[in-house]
Amino acid sequence: MLDQAAAFLLLAEAELSRLELRDAEPWLIAADAFDALDRLPDVVYCRFRMAEALLETRAGRAEAARELREVDAIAADMGWTLLRREIASLAARARLSLSEAPARVARASRTNAFGLTAREHEVLTLVAQGRSNREIADGLFISEKTAGVHVSNILGKLGVRGRTEAAAVAHRMGLVEATTPPA
Question: Model-level pTM?
């Protein structure tokens, strides 16, 4: 039987794997250890991070969605609103639905006056915050090349030559809310 110290050591190993962008296995091991100790908050945290790791490695989207739905349900039952916000944020960035039925949103056909798709609008919001293509890719769980394609499409649709000009147009036209750039 595992003791608390051993469970927290497994948690530390999982956190290290998160820094090194390794697989989700350490999170599963840590979750099982905390489950054996009946430490529900720690189990839920580990399973949330496991879903995040599955998405980071670009593998197991279905498994990640299932994990996020389950931990969201537990967090809802326990009244853990902050964790539910984090879960919803991760699901939104990964374009995963937290409901059992697939989301019926016609993202590609939803456009605004400039003809931007919903995804291009998400990218434009991040461009307006001063994010690089790498930061956009990491935040939206897409490749850096895909982020660059979105940025190029946005520049063309807005009729501008650069990111700064695109951000200025986006703010002036009310396409994005004013935010502070990342630190």
Answer: 0.53
